[in-house]
Specification:
By secondary structure, the chain is of the alpha+beta class. It contains 2 helices and 4 strands, in the order βααβββ. The N and C termini lie close together (9 Å).
């Protein structure tokens, strides 16, 4: 099964708040969003928690920061592999 993931409005708000609070200047919000969705898709397909770590090289603090989402933050769909 392939799991597709999209953020709900609530999830998008959480991501936007997380990015604004932790990403250093010059980091592409779009690039981080795409990477985060890829990670979340993989984690969801393996029944793992929906968490994403923004690496320290991309944060304003110089420390890694973790975003954790829950079921109300995402829309998951599955399709049979063909």
């Amino acid at each position: 099964m392939i799991t597709n993931i999209e953020l709900t409005e609530r999830g998008a708000d959480k991501f936007n708040t997380f990015f604004a609070a932790h990403a250093r200047d010059g980091v592409s919000m779009q690039a981080v969003m795409f990477e985060m969705l890829d990670v979340m898709q993989d984690r969801a397909s393996m029944d793992e928690s929906l968490s994403y770590e923004l690496g320290r090289q991309y944060t304003s603090s110089g420390n890694p920061e973790v975003l954790t989402l829950d079921a109300e933050d995402v829309l998951l769909t599955t399709e049979d592999d063909e």
